[in-house]
Amino acid sequence: MTWQDIHRQVASALAFHHIENASFEAELLIRSALNITRAQFYAENNNITNEIPQSLLSMLERRIKGEPFAYISNQREFFGLSFYVDNRVLIPRPETELLVETTLELIKSKYPAQLPVTVDVGTGSGAIAISLASKLPNHRIYATDISPDALEVARINCSRHQVCSRVTLLEGNLLEPLPEPVDIVVANLPYIPRSTYKSLGPEILNFEPPGALNGGENGLFYIFEILEQSRTRLRPGASLLLEIGEEQSTEVMERAHSVFPRAGISSLRDLADKKRAILIENPQIPFDLTIN
Ligand SMILES: C[S@@+](CC[C@H](N)C(=O)[O-])C[C@H]1O[C@@H](n2cnc3c(N)ncnc32)[C@H](O)[C@@H]1O
């Protein structure tokens, strides 16, 4: 059999089980199972084997059962870096790169001479904190998560990207484990409303950790809670950058305005022109302190 013969068989098995983009997924599975590059996959068309290798068959079986490819291959690209992932963490999504890009711009424009204290809240695989650390060689970054399992994965990724000495992993609720006030809070917290969560597709529902996605009744439980916690944990001139669902910007901006009436509050759009993040700048003095 050649690669192409194997590819044809794997793709038709995937298509038969209603996996979308079956041809592309088949290529990914083959390359991952047999550890070959794209170039090898396309170039070598000799007879390579008499039967489909067992490693590929077991990956195929998992994929047919709906497990995301990222968990099967234990790998996901984010911000040009390769992250180890398994079902202890959310698979990093491309839209979250908006948070990394915006944080880098903020640091460049607001802190040209100093090193801000930054925290990635709900770090999961460590995707945001490690991407920032990889672009900011002198910076130290806190990364918190309530899930010790997720922090184990973040630790693997810190080692992989050699940033263990600069990314401090802290277990706890949102900003509570921080040992000091911070300049920049960046967070992709769970924000899916409970009823929407229950209707998500099986690839998400059956495999990704519920605690990474379900944001409670209206989806905003953690986002509102981090705004409250920020009242006492920010340095002067701080910024908060929060990923949100595309329908949530008005509600989050209103709440942010009531917690931080003096702040500059704006929504940020992703490449599909959807409002996917809220930026809160200079929260300064919280409202309840200004009236004392
Ligand atoms: C949407 S995932 C984001 C993961 C990662 N930052 C990313 O963008 O790929 C949300 C993360 O927040 C964590 N989390 C949920 N509740 C939390 C809380 N109260 N305090 C800290 N982290 C929390 C979850 O364990 C999960 O890792």
How would you describe this structure to a colleague?
This protein is of the alpha/beta class and 292 residues long. It has two domains: 63 residues; 215 residues, Vaccinia Virus protein VP39 (Rossmann fold, 3-Layer(aba) Sandwich). The protein has 13 helices and nine strands. The strands form two sheets. It has a seven-stranded mixed sheet, sandwiched between helices. The longest helix is centred in the first third of the chain and has 14 residues. The mean pLDDT is 93.
Which architecture of the largest domain would the CATH scheme give at its second level?
A: 3-Layer(aba) Sandwich
Poorly predicted tracts of residues = none
CATH class of the largest domain: Alpha Beta
Structural class: alpha/beta
- What fold name stands as the CATH topology of the largest domain? Rossmann fold
| Strands, count | 9
- The CA-CA distance between the termini, in Å, is 79 Å
Question: In total, how many domains does the architecture comprise?
Answer: 2
Largest sheet properties: 7 strands, mixed
Ions, cofactors and other ligands present here are: S-adenosylmethionine
Count the DSSP helices.
13
Order of strands in the sheet with the most strands? 5-4-3-6-7-9-8
Helix fraction by DSSP (H/I, runs of at least 4) = 40-55%
Based on CA inertia axes, which overall geometry fits? elongated
Q: Name the beta content range.
A: 15-25%
Assigned CATH superfamily of the largest domain: Vaccinia Virus protein VP39
Cα-atom radius of gyration: 21 Å
For the residues shown, what is the average pLDDT?
A: 93
Helix and strand pattern? HHHHHEEHEHEHEEHHHEHEEH
